Amino acid sequence: MTVYFFYGDEDFNIELEIEKMSSKLNPDFKSMSYTVLDNPQYSDLITALRTTPMMFGEMLTVINSEEYFLSNKNFFDDKELEDIEDALKHSPENLNIVFVVKLPRNENKKLDSRRKLYKILSKYNTKEFPTFKTYKIADISNWIKNQAKTKGITLDFKCAELLIEQIGNNLREISIELDKLKLVAYPQTVITPKMIGEICISNQDLFNLTELIMKGEKDKALLEFKRLLDKKHPLELLSAIQTMLRKWIILKTKSASCSSMELAKLTGQHEFVVKQTLAKLKHSALKDLVRLKQNLFEAEYIIKTAESIDIISEVECAIIR
């Protein structure tokens, strides 16, 4: 058996690593050879560690273990920990176990290395998956290029930097945009800056729309909204605007007490983008941002609960309300 211990606040990279491992399992028996358990109690955990694969090939068991490490008290007593350690040493040969701890993003939380369970698991294949720092442009660019390669497309550093400028360090969102760019590029495989401009909504696009709303220029705001619909589905656009507004509200409420570097960490943006945004938001009232976000949240709720069948009209009403 092989034991792995993955932890960190970049949950998407953890998921990619597990996906890579699960792809090696025999596809004919995957429903029986791949198991995910969420913070199992002692008896269920011991059973999982001692389970013998029933079919040919290896078995992969993922143990989501946040409660083991983030609870205020130890999840297992000393005797149970001894049993767990023994089970890990003597588990079946074809059984692979992955203990996973996904930490809250951008909260700088660390695992308590003094816990006995940490000391047991750290003896095995341990890997931390931290969120990329927003100012580590080269590191994020390399990740984008590698992720694009797994999707069968290529792009240069200029394109990667455009994606970072528009999305920040949210790897999950970047991966989604790469999937869209792959479709746009087909049958070609090379991504260009023009494609990114046509498909990906930039911070400037969202700022233009929101600024028109807050200025009361509702007719122009609706025209801008319709233009952006060429790039995204209404719900995607709604989500993007709300994400942007959440970041803006953080900037407005924290700018007096936090440095631009601290604000960059809180919002997952580059420090240069933070400074630009703060300058643009100088004359925007916090209460107006909060009210707009609430309107959009209510529209999203109505749409997702099927209370409205006209998605575009619902968003338009939220914009002009």
CATH top level class name of the largest domain? Alpha Beta
- Which class of secondary structure composition applies to the elements? alpha/beta
- Low-confidence spans: pLDDT under 50, at least 5 residues? none
Sheet with most strands: strand arrangement: 2-3-4-1-5
Mean pLDDT: 86
The beta-strand count equals: 5
Percent of residues in β-strands = 5-15%
What's the alpha carbon Rg, rounded to whole Å?
23 Å
**With helices defined by DSSP (H or I, 4 residues minimum), what is the helix count?**
17
Instruction: Give me the CATH fold name of the largest domain.
Output: Rossmann fold
The first-to-last residue Cα distance is: 60 Å
Total separate domains? 3
Going by CATH, the architecture of the largest domain would be 3-Layer(aba) Sandwich
Shape: globular
- Element order, helices and strands? EHHEHEHHEHEHHHHHHHHHHH
Q: Major sheet, described briefly?
A: 5 strands, parallel
**Helix-residue proportion:** 55-70%
